[in-house]
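Practice problem 4.
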């Protein structure tokens, strides 16, 4: 009998799905160096670049999301692509012969894990958010194990299958050895002054950017420094709007590749409330002001944020209020050492370390049980 471990990992669409998927794969490889891992993603989505860049093979399916409202004629084509994707996934699984399939959410996982279920392959789901995604909710009844990052997920999943593991995070964030002062200097700023990091994800967040642009005088006149990741999507527009403005305490960049150093430099972070980002703030003990995106399914970012706010582990500013109140709150909060310490202490209590290794051990256990 072949003892080689073979694992399928499927899902993606956003960094929030892809980072955990790659972290789980890396953890499986650490525990079982000879394991064979194959990803299944959605054609044209972010995972088709990010996964190969992390060193793994990926197969793409022509799957895409349903249009809203559901009665739109275009959904006939979406349904046809789903059926085609499920047939393709079955073929991939028959050829690869995995002992276990892992779903992290996103379009592709619904087809790939649906195919795994129909072939009798054990499945494990990883749900990043406090409000479960549609793919995972649909797949839950046939899953062997469901790994979650928040308490109270029994309202979405069978309680007996749930395991509270937390979200795997980018390992390099935890391995940053640079000191706070060195980190601040690396961005050309002064370690003696407080630093606020404003980050809206790799593409950026218009609300966060407008919140900065509307308070440039306040930023210039404050004793606080700002490191502002605008996102590549908004980069050229912001460059033209900032032309001729002298802002010695504001560093503007479209993308920060070394987030470990950026987090080390920051005394306070301003961010959207994606599940992956929140897990990173918890592990690093970062004081944070969360501005949940209103443009996500079931308003799940607000639910993610409220899980922290209820424990006084983060501050929340609603998207509609941010252009007026976000910057003044950031300036006052970062100047309050006691408030920063309590936010840091409280968010650290919510950290669930070693998530990737815990999930990887469950993946391996399921694979071995199926033999």
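Answer key:
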């Amino acid at each position: 009998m072949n003892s080689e471990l073979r694992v399928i990992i499927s899902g993606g669409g956003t960094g929030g799905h892809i980072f955990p998927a790659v972290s789980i794969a890396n953890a499986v490889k650490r525990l079982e160096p000879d394991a064979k891992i194959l990803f299944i993603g959605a054609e044209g989505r972010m995972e088709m670049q990010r996964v190969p860049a992390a060193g793994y093979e990926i197969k793409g399916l022509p799957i895409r999301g349903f249009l809203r409202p559901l009665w739109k004629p275009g959904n006939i084509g979406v349904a046809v692509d789903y059926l085609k994707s499920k047939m393709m996934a079955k073929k991939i699984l028959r050829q690869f012969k995995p002992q276990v399939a892992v779903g992290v959410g996103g379009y592709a996982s619904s087809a790939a894990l649906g195919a795994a279920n129909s072939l009798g392959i054990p499945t494990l789901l990883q749900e990043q958010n406090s409000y479960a995604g549609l793919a995972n909710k649909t797949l839950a009844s046939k899953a062997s194990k469901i790994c979650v990052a928040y308490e109270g997920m029994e309202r979405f999943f069978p309680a007996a299958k749930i395991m509270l593991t937390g979200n795997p995070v980018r390992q390099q964030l935890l391995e940053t050895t640079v000191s706070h002062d060195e980190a601040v200097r690396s961005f050309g700023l002064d370690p003696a002054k407080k630093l606020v990091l404003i980050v809206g994800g790799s593409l950026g967040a218009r609300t966060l950017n407008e919140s900065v642009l509307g308070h440039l005088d306040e930023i210039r006149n404050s004793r606080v420094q700002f490191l502002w990741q605008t996102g590549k999507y908004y980069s050229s527009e912001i460059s033209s709007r900032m032309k001729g403005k002298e802002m010695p305490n504001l560093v503007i960049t479209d993308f920060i590749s070394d987030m470990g150093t950026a987090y080390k430099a920051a005394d306070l972070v301003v961010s959207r409330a994606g599940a992956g980002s929140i897990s990173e703030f918890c592990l690093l003990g970062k004081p944070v002001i969360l501005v949940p995106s209103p443009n996500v399914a079931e308003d799940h970012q607000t639910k993610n944020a409220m899980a922290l706010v209820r424990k006084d582990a983060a501050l929340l500013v609603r998207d509609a209020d941010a252009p007026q109140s976000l910057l003044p709150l950031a300036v006052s909060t970062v100047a309050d050492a006691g408030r920063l310490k309590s936010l840091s202490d409280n968010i650290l209590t919510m950290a669930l370390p070693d998530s990737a290794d815990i999930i990887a051990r469950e993946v391996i256990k399921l694979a071995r049980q199926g033999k």
